Amino acid sequence: MNDWMISILILFLALLAVYLLLKYIQLKGRVEFRAREMYEVWQAREMDRQVSEKADTLFRTWKLDEEKKIRQDAVKKSEAVIRGKVTEHLIPYFPHFKYNPKDARFLGTPVDLIVFDGLSEGEINKVVFIEVKSGKNCTLSKREQLVRECIDRGKVSYEIIHNRE
Fold this sequence. Notes:
Blueprint lengths: L2 H88 L13 E3 L6 E5 L8 E5 L11 H11 L13
Antiparallel strand pairs: 1-2, 2-3
């Protein structure tokens, strides 16, 4: 082989080495770009998962706390209602009740008690409708207001129903 063939072979090998080096650099860039891309996708997914887990944990904690508060509030309200119902039944036996307990009849709704004042002594002085209120809320319901307004207007009567069966 002569010198010019060796020179061409060296030049060919040099060009081949340069070509392969360029291809290597190009592929290395693609691999790095793809690796960076895959890392960013993984990082975003991982962050979403962590945020979702944190949000889920916070929600569960909040839900348990609120459920506990709601249950406690329900128990308090239930106790208040029961206390009120018991009071409605027992109020005729309290010392400040100004009528004879024997004259009182529990109705419950739409008024709590009807007192036939003097009935136990054989003489009725008056009929009294009583609504018992306890606790903070002392307002009458709409139905209770209607009953009070009807009584105030004197729209009260006495009827006899004779059942002949």
